[in-house]
Amino acid sequence: MAGTALNADYLVIGSGIVGLAVAWHLRERGRVVVVDKEPTAAFHQTGRNSGVVHSGIYYQPGSLKARMCTDGRHLLESFASDRGIALRRSGKLILATDESEEAGLDDLTQRGEQNGLIGLRRLSATEVSRMEPAVKPGEALLVPETGLINYREVAAALAHDIREAGGELIYGFDVSSIDSTSRPTVTSSDGRVVVSDAAVNCGGLQSDRLARMAGATPDIRIVPFRGIYYRLAVPTLVDLPIYPVPDLRFPFLGVHVTPTVEGEIEVGPNAVLATGREAYRLTDVDWGDMLEIARYAGFRRLARKYWRVGAAEIRRTLSRRSFASAARRLVPAIEDSWLIPAGSGIRAQALDGEGQLIDDFVIDRTGTFLHVLNAPSPAATACLAIGAYVADQV
């Protein structure tokens, strides 16, 4: 195909679950082409998360995250039911591990009610022990709307529908240049060209770079945070996801204990600065990425403010004992030896020049090119709502 331009009504860069959801909504409005530098869909964030269908309890009322998580959860449940994809409405417990965290449960209850959640229930330590005997006794918030799913299956179903409607998914397409002056045109490193009437950048970990390539000047940078997972050798320890009360200064939820829809239990993830945007192993280092991060004033401000938090996350990354200790704050029975390495994921987290972690979805425009610049968790839960919003903007 090198040297010959492929024409499309709509072009989507990125075949993660958000990119596929955008293309899925556009598929009946015209010919859609999705390009991705990887060999398969859902290669990065979509295929490396904990499979939780989020309720929307954590997010600032009125934010895009709050609105789209709630709407997206309903759309996802309907989509899964129609496609025969297993989705278990498990509910979850947010546990106060000591008295100092109990006020956080009050704040979350208020926020959840503002976000339209129904059935939130505060549990006493006795009720927690009765519901989940292995969990540390303490006050907790029961969130019935939380669920479990395999997002790779959702991505595969979206891709199937796009192809069925005449769309095309092109893998191994590493975008090397973008011309957005008239009809958006993208060229791959091996010379392939796609020309479209409108385009959407859903590049995830590379989204800010793609936006700059298209002529946009976003005042944020993607900073990669690696989260490692362990699988528990004892798969029947808990029936519900068990989460700590989060520190709402950060868009991370802390190490949690989560059953999967396949019947296993995962512990994690933590959140530590990754040594590259796609550095999934501790031995992977992308010096270009690291130099870019170090030069960014926003990161230096963040590091100066929260270096102690970062040091604790590094300890958990390097020490299974430290990781197990974090899990034991929720489930005391967990032993170090029960933790079996289960891979890692990298969160594409936007950071602004003042050192603030952006805690909402960010969607920007350059002419006929739309850029999804910050779509971390709960983007998988919200994917169909994000897709509908972006398709309407396009």
Can you tell me about this structure?
Helices cover 32% and strands 26% of the residues. It starts with a strand and ends with a helix. The relative contact order is 0.20. It folds into three domains: 1-87 and 146-219 and 357-394, FAD/NAD(P)-binding domain (3-Layer(bba) Sandwich), CATH 3.50.50; 92-144, no CATH class; 222-352, D-Amino Acid Oxidase, subunit A, domain 2 (D-Amino Acid Oxidase, Chain A, domain 2), CATH 3.30.9. Strands 1, 2, 9, 10, 11, 12, 19 and 20 form an eight-stranded mixed beta sheet that branches. The chain is of the alpha+beta class.
Assign the CATH architecture of the largest domain.
Answer: 3-Layer(bba) Sandwich
Summing up helix and strand content along with how strands pair, one would put the structural category as alpha+beta
Overall, the morphology is globular
Using the coordinates shown, work out and report the CATH topology of the largest domain: FAD/NAD(P)-binding domain
Highest-level CATH class of the largest domain: Alpha Beta
What attributes does this structure have?
10 helices, 20 strands, FAD/NAD(P)-binding domain, globular, alpha+beta, D-Amino Acid Oxidase, Chain A, domain 2, 394 residues, 3 domains
